[in-house]
Structure prediction request, 458 residues.
Amino acid sequence: MSDRDMHHALAFLALSQLKGFGPARLNLLLQQCEPDGDDFYADCLRYLPQIPGLNAQQVQLCCQRIHNPFHGEWKERDQLLHWLAYDQHQVLTLGHADYPELLQQIADPPLMLYLAGNAELLHQPQLAIVGSRKPTIEGFNDARRFAGALSELGWCITSGLAEGIDAAAHQGCLQANGKTLAVLGTGIDRVYPRSNQPLYEQIYHRGLLISEFPLGTAPRGHNFPKRNRIVAGLSVGVLVVEAALKSGSLISARLACESGREVFAIPGSIHQAQYKGCHQLIKQGAKLTETIQDIHEELAHWLQLPESYSSSSFGLTTDSSHFSSNGLLSAKDSLPAVGAFSTAKNQQAVASNQSLELFTGHSHSADPSSSNMASTPDAYNPNLTAVAIKQKAPSVPKFDNPQQEQLWQAIAQGAGNLDALVMATGFNTGEISQNLLMLELSGRVVQEAGIYRVNLSV
Prediction:
């Protein structure tokens, strides 16, 4: 980070700490001061005292810190400098050349972005996947599989690191060796919920963590809707997987629409509250989404794909681990420039492939309890208790914690899906999902056609 960028970051830190200095007053200031201009600091010092409604003493302190940010006591400055000393930590300020162009176009772009991870991902085409914090098993799997398949096409998957659909989207992307961005509703040095700590660390090493909130900011309810505007602002489209009528995911969808971005929604049963928000979005013009083709035909031009492409080019084979079958993306049509994308040729491809299910030919069931348990050799035996599982286990590898070992034992005895694992272990779905992710990443467990099985070769 150059000295000029550091000075800039500390000046914006001072501005961000000025009470009452929100987006409206920021716009007033930026009308007079160009953030990337040579006279930015002088302009700030001249115009800040003229902005009405601010405390004169606080304005004076802010101006002092902008003029000489390394002078005097300033706890937040010291915390930031310490944090920036770590690898892949940086701050971007509004107006900087590397500030994401799409995010800068929203009505109230964040003044500062704290970044941890691969900052180059900010400039890759992103799709947001959002939804319920307490999804059905079906919704969780949909989010994970859509994220995996879309990442194989080249999309970066952006979400909010919340429980449920957010976590599933991040997990699915990582499992497909894709790139994912997590926008936090806390300070970037805080993990919320705590159960997502391993996922947070995976994203730091293999993706990008983003926050606009100062270091140390604890989770507060009003910060999460603010976080949603960044999720939507970074992305060219938003996919809503499951959302009730009052879900925060609808905020992301509305903000995306207001910013001219595409909105997609997966439908579900009319009898389940988790889908009513998605149905409302579809009524309002969101695209009903059943396969990744529905998304791809609207947004493929952002990826700048070659004129001839096929599903095999992206690993979307009939292998169930790639979430696709029946030539899901077998169109061989050229892609026009941005803004002139036509769906006509893609519709021809759809017509020639009548079965375009995303997941190995299985249809999208509206019943969240449907799990293929009875039709698979890995079907769960309800008479098998957790004690019996331990007694009958095969050769057991080493695990990071007792929960992972118990899950592995349960899967080894036939508990092949989330419902069965809840019954066998007594763990909640959050604990199971998090530990399953770690088991999959370590190779001890694999998933095929929605069913988990142990990998005895590890």
About this structure: Residues 305-394 have pLDDT under 50 and may be disordered.
